[in-house]
Write a structure and sequence with these properties.
By secondary structure, the chain is α+β, with helices and mostly antiparallel strands. It folds into three domains: 2-40 and 219-325, Serine Threonine Protein Phosphatase 5, Tetratricopeptide repeat (Alpha Horseshoe); 42-109, Immunoglobulins (Immunoglobulin-like), CATH 2.60.40; 118-215, Tetratricopeptide repeat domain (Serine Threonine Protein Phosphatase 5, Tetratricopeptide repeat). The chain is 59% helix and 12% strand. The chain has a four-stranded antiparallel sheet with strand order 3-2-5-6, with no helix packed on it. Strands 4-1-7 form a three-stranded mixed sheet, with no helix packed on it. Helix 1 (2-19) crosses helix 13 and helix 7 (186-198) runs parallel beside helix 9. The radius of gyration is 20 Å and the shape is globular.
């Protein structure tokens, strides 16, 4: 039963990992104690409720936290202590970006204004279609760029679509164009890392991920996740070749990067798959106590997620394996 459940769960993880294309996510200096504390302490977080237009997308520090309901509300939690940038976008409205101060909590009202900007409207349509029709999204990103050549976000959106279409040359060109508009564009560097990785240019991929982290001044969960997955895949390749020493070395590199990605995602939906991958890597390393700690943290952060019952069964089985080894 454990094997069958694991096979099904691993298949789902492969699907979820593919979906990380929208977000991909070492701090080599992270200490052992810091690695155990994955999410911010409860007393350093708060909850806010965004009140704006219905069906508006909400980002906190460029991490999508969800979409408002039909009444225009979205509860965002946890929100780590400190200052943040809140961004809200709704179809047909001008996007709003504003600071969220440390003292702000509870209801945050954000007024959006209707827009007639054709470039903005084309970009919004592309963002909505990117999950269902890559070609239509591509055409709309290109339209937005034609209307507004210095539209950095549209260039980046186009790069993501071209990457999904395996157009490495076109994707890199789109990244270069995004950088011409915004030279220190951390998110663009993270996507560039994924492009180079797809093209099997490993050193360039690593350099891009690390540049993204530097450009983000340490904050770039997509790049941290990219690095974690880079070394995870290197470990799996080594294991497949029977090189178990390098398999463990690469897994050890991988687990250095997962905590930063998870901490920076701070309960956002994209953290779901990152937690699960992190736990699986510890299992591959036979560090069952650490895997259990990750899964338990996952259940505390996402208690109502559909995978919760499966993850609980993993914890039970891992505890059983540990007791049998003693």
């Amino acid at each position: 039963m454990r094997t069958l459940t694991r096979i099904r769960f691993n298949y789902k993880l492969r699907v979820l990992t593919f979906c990380l294309a929208a977000l991909l996510l070492s701090n080599p200096g992270v200490s052992a104690q810091e690695r155990k504390t994955i999410s911010p302490p409860t007393n350093q977080t708060k909850t806010i409720t965004i009140i704006t237009e219905p069906n508006a997308d909400v980002w906190l520090d460029d991490i999508k936290r969800g979409t408002t309901d039909e009444s225009g509300k979205l509860i965002v939690k946890p929100v780590p202590a400190g200052k943040h940038i809140l961004r809200v976008r709704a179809d047909g409205f001008k996007e709003v970006s504003q600071s969220l101060l440390p003292v702000q909590r509870g209801d945050i009202k954000i007024s959006l204004v209707k827009t007639t900007d054709e470039a903005e409207l084309a970009f919004q349509q592309a963002e909505k279609l990117v999950a269902t029709s890559k070609e239509s999204a591509k055409e709309l990103y290109e339209k937005a760029i034609t209307l507004r050549p210095k539209f950095a976000e549209a260039h980046l959106g186009l790069a993501r679509v071209l990457l999904e279409q395996s157009d490495v040359i076109g994707a890199l060109e789109a990244i270069r164009n995004a950088r011409k508009v915004r030279p220190n564009y951390a998110e663009a560097s993270a996507v560039e890392g994924r492009i180079y990785k797809m093209n099997e240019e490993e050193q360039k991929a690593l350099a891009s991920y690390k540049r993204a982290i530097a450009e983000g001044k340490g904050f770039q969960p997509e790049a941290y996740t990219g690095l974690a997955l880079f070394y995870k895949e290197k470990a799996e390749a080594a294991g497949a070749e029977g090189d178990f020493e390098n398999e463990q070395i690469h897994y050890a590199q991988s687990v250095k990067y997962f905590p930063s990605a998870i901490s920076q995602l701070s309960g956002a939906p994209d953290a779901i798959v990152v937690y699960q991958l992190f736990g699986l890597v510890y299992e591959k390393m036979k560090k069952y106590k650490d895997a259990i700690a990750v899964y338990e943290e996952f259940l505390r952060v996402f208690p109502d997620i559909s995978e919760a019952s499966v993850v609980r069964s993993f914890i039970i089985q891992l505890k059983k394996q540990m007791s049998e080894q003693q």
